[in-house]
Amino acid sequence: MMEKRDLKKRRTKPRVAFLYGIGLFVATAVFAGVVLYQLWWQPRVATGNPIFGYRMEEMPELNEAWLSATEEFGGNQVHVDYVEVIWMSGPVIYFNIRVEEGISLSEAHSAAVPILEYFIETSNEAALDYSLQVVVSYGEIAYLDGDGNLAGLRADNQREVAAHTHEYHRSFAESTLEYAERYPSRANMTRANDNINSLFTASILAAGGEEELESMRTRFAAITPMTDEEESAFIESQGYIPEYSGVWQVPPTNISDFPNWGVWNNRRSRIDWN
Questions:
Q1: Which residues have a Cβ under 8 Å from the Cβ of 201 and sit 6 or more positions away?
Q2: What does the pLDDT read at residue 182?
Q3: pLDDT at 13 (0 to 100)
Q4: Nearest-angstrom CA–CA distance, 188 and 223
Q5: How far is the first Cα of the chain from the last one, in angstroms, to the nearest whole number?
Q6: 236 with 245: CB under 8 angstroms?
Q7: How far is CA 116 from CA 83, 119, 140, 144, in A?
Q8: Rounded to an integer, what distance in angstroms lies between the CA atom of residue 9 and that of residue 193?
C-alpha cells in the first residue's frame, strides 16, 4: 500500500508543477502586455493625434501661399507698414497689422478690413471656417507667447493703463488732502484720510513711492480739525464748507487705442473691435 501511495505522490508533483508553470506564464504575459500598452502603444497613439484634437477634423486645409499673398497685399495698403499672418495649425488665424505711427484708430480699422476680405476671397472662403483674429498696432513689436497670443504687446499696454490709473488715484488723493488742509471739516478730513490710508494707498505707492505716501500722512497728521462751533460759524458766514468736487472716475485715455483687437464676424462680414 505504501508503494502505491508513493507512486501517486510522485505522479501528482509533476502535474502541480506544470499547472503552476502555466499560471505563472499567463500572469507574466498579462503583466508584460499591460506594461507594453502603457509605456509604448498608448504614448505612440497619443503622439499621433493633432494637438487640437477633433476640432480640426472638419476644417478645410489652408494653403501657405494664401498667407503669403495676404501679407504682400496688406503691406501695400495705405497707412500699413507690414502685415504678418500667423497660423499655428489650429482653428485660429492671427493677423498682426502694423500701421503707421500717428494715424487715428478709425484709419487703422479701415486699413484692416480689406486685408481680411482679401484673405477670405483668396482662400475661396475656406478662411470663414476659422476664427480670424486681428490686432492693429504700432510702436514696440509684439511677441507671441507659447499659446500664440500677442502677450508682449498686450502686457505692455496693460502696464501703461495701470500706471495711468495709479497716477489718477494719486492725484485724486492729493487734491482731497489739499482741501482738508484748507477746509479741515469732518467731511474733508474723513475723505482725505480714507483716500490716503485705505482706498488709494497702493496707487500712491505705485505712482509716488514710499516717500510721497509718508509725506501725505505727515501733512494730514499736522492738520488741526475744525470744532463743531468752527464748522457752524464757517457755514453761517460762507453758506457751506467747500469740498473737492472731483469725481472718482478714471478719465479716458488714448493709451488703449493701440493695440486694438478685433474678430471677424461672418454673419455681418465685418470686424468686431473691442
A1: 213
A2: 95
A3: 54
A4: 11
A5: 101
A6: no
A7: 11, 5, 23, 20
A8: 100
Locate the DSSP E strands across the chain. Answer: 80-87, 92-99, 131-137, 260-265, 270-273
Number of neighbours of residue 185 by Cβ within 10 angstroms: 20
71: its cell numbers: 501679407
pTM: 0.43
- The amino acid present at 10, given as its one-letter code, is R
Write down the mean pLDDT value for the chain. 77
Beta strand residue intervals within 138-238, DSSP E: none
pLDDT reported for residue 14: 58
Alpha carbons within 13 A on the beta-carbon side of 265: 9
The size of the chain, in residues, is 274
Residue 256 burial class via C-beta count within 10 angstroms: exposed 0-12, middle 13-18, buried 19 and up: middle
Work out the average pLDDT over 130-148.
67
- Reported confidence tier of residue 269, pLDDT bands at 50, 70, 90: confident
Tracing cell 486699413 back to the chain, one arrives at 111
Considering only CA atoms, which of 163, 153, 182 is closest in space to residue 242? 182
